[in-house]
Amino acid sequence: MYTTLFTYMPPLITELAELILKDNAILFVGTQLSSDATSAPAVEQIAEALAARINYQRADRSLPAVARDYEVLQGRPALILALREELARQQVGPNPIYQLIANAVLPTTKLITNRFDQVLETALTQFEKPYVLIVRDTDVPFFDESKVTVIKIQGDISQPDSLVITEDDVDAFISNLPTLSDIVRAFFATKTLIFLGYDLNSAQFKRFFNQVTRNLSVYRRTAYAIVSQASEGMDDVGQRYWKNQNVEIVFHDAIPFLEALAQAVKSASTAAVPQKQSRPVSPPPSLPPQPYKGLQVYSEDDAAIFFGRGQECMQLTNRVLANRLTILYGESGVGKSSLLRAGLGQRMAIERGLLAVAVSEPGRPIVENLRLSLLAAANRAGFRPQSSTDLTGLVREVQRERDGPVVLAIDQAEQFFLIYTNEERLAALAQLEGFLADRSLNLRFVISIREDALAYLQPLEAILPNVLNVRYRLERLSQEAAREAIENPAALYGVGWEPALVQRLLLDLSDPDAGGIGPAQLQINCERLYREAISRNPNPPQQISLTLFESLGNTASLLGDYLTDTIQSLEPAQQSAARTLLSALVSSSGVKLRLNLPELALFVDMAQDKTLAILNVLAERSLVRRISRPGRITEAGQTTARASEEFELS
Fold first, then answer.
1. I need a surface site. Which of 175, 454, 510, 559 has the fewest CB within 10 A?
2. DSSP assignment of 410-425
3. Residues 530 and 426 occupy one common structural domain
4. Domain hosting residue 621, numbered range
């Protein structure tokens, strides 16, 4: 049963080197690595030194166990000081084994380590390989794909409050660092993992591994753990245990393994250069006719002009990959649908996955809409599945073809509760529960819903346990994100923005009460200004100027023009009623009101269906916001009171 590197090192090393070259492998660097076979790893020496300081007598002499008692007896500051002192004694010069790791990685490689010293960073610096350090959730926005990424899951000694040292710290990792843990779990779900310097028999490692892999699909890629022949507990039973966890045990000393891997990566990199040059250069993706969408939803074809949501795209992607079911929510008009289609869809393609987005429609089950959407997404990706009549069979075929996850998203999920009957909802939820329970499917679900309709989901926990556990709230645009959304799309068309105008728009569109800038208002202004600039000067170079903006009025004027255009798009008989409806939603003192459909119909003296038709147009153009008031839903999903809707100004 023992797997030795001697028997298949060349093919394995070649495979891993190619995966590193394609950024499809992650190195997990543990604390058990040592270049001196005659001495204990540094982490064990530190644990023993701390144990001696407090006369520690327990059988478990691991660092988390010793650190827990040290903290109880001496306090956290004393523990940090002791760790620093012992680390200073351990680090006396360059470490050959970490120099080999630094030599083996490429500029795009991701390294995950539970070392909290700087030995890995020192080696990367020696080999002149720039890196980005990720220690906390707040570091994640600085993720840089052009540099080596070092993720320190147990913190950094230079940032004492980040340290994950004691047993309690380790157990709280997932809950205390949700964004960072999402990244780690996403890597577990989609990449080939190479474990170096880990004691696979330790209770701490097994707890961490089980926490991260819980609820992930069995379609995780095979991981490799490089362990020495002398490792305890790696008999036939131990190997079989890890085989069941999809981890292949490779018996070999770390140094010769890393020497071979570094050489293979170098050879693969050299061989890849002429191949890359010999391939014809692919044309850039075609741009849509205009750089701004106004109030239309961004589609998959608009990914090239989708700016200002880079951080949200990355965070949502990691959360979706790390969990079977994710709830995406936010206020109406904040851009959830666009983030799904133009953001998440592109990220899934990078992960060799496929996203399908469906909405609820009267007369057609939501599962059928998901099937049709997945079939269309597969066709857009360039293949025609044979198992197209059954969603389960279609998912299996797509995941085999793509060799990656399938993501099914239900957009505007509040409509699911308004359109379908109780029986239709229960049937759909039962099917959804079956999909979530089937670990043979490399499948993720996203439910996108307005924040004011989240109450619909809570009673469904009896059918979908923990349905609200994993959520992602989409906020309004920050100042910097809004700047990107203004400037970057036009730049692709050779059009610039005068800095003074950009600053003016950011100031005018900011809403301190709502916290940020609404994408809808920003798009209305940008689309109108771009269209006006091109009509006045169709020949490059072009710049959208503050003078042009002021000639059109101000942001309020542009929004007013949009209102006028919207009303004029209605039938003449509806235009007066539309103005009356908008005025009804504001009090005499200027305060926004929220009214239901019967109240608004009475206000304009029209039938409710005709009033609703006008309100639908105003809602589509983001002039009013629809708020669903769910009826009372029992734990079995039965509605006991009719759902209603209210409207307010956006």
1. 175
2. E-STHHHHHHS-HHHH
3. no
4. 569-650
